Fold this protein.
Amino acid sequence: MKEIIDDDVIIDVKDVKMRFTMYEGVNSLKETVVRAFRRDLKKKKFEALKGVSLQIKQGEGVALIGRNGAGKSTLLKIISGLLKPSEGTVKVYGRIAPLIGYGAGFDGNATGLENIYLNGAIMGYTRKQIHDKLEDIIEFSEIGDFIYSPVKTYSSGMTGRLAFSVAINLIGLNSDILLLDEALAAGDNAFNKKCTARLDELRRQGLTFVMVSHGAPTRFCTRAIWLDHGLIREEGDFSAVHKHYIEATNTVPGPDSK
């Protein structure tokens, strides 16, 4: 693990801005290509983050809360390194384990077994590290002999269980920070309880948690950062910030959802 500086700060975000290009009046890729060929494509910039600064200390559990489009997932992807900010800096002093869109890197034509090695390699683990955890991954996923079938034959639930199982069984190896986007939705209630128990174990081991939430209470976080239209509106004790968020948005607390 890299040296921690600034009083155990493990994530340091300074004045981060993120702009995306949006195309006006198009509803499909085909229409985009046709209008671009005709030079009739109108573009505009959308600023998802408008100057966000925050610090997260080693061992903290922090929830990013806010409505859809507030910038939560964008910020999480920037912290993970999946996106590069348009302006500002992000410094991370530890190894990140991202649970963001898990399963997105799966090859549908490859078997579940092959995808375990593929996904693990993408996450930065060696073949030996993956092999040593292989039995645990397969058992945790509960997909049985389907592990030898192409992933394209899986249901969405099976794909989610396998992807989550790969991530959840590997992240404890050399990781310092867990990034989790939205609620656990990789399987049925029993499977989700098992995932929650595993995450509890990782919190007890001292991993830093940064989780995206729509505002529903989470057992893993004691601090919340409320994002509103690309800006931090409030941050502090989770219960207090969550209460103010609910009051301001008239949102009924409940399970996270996209």
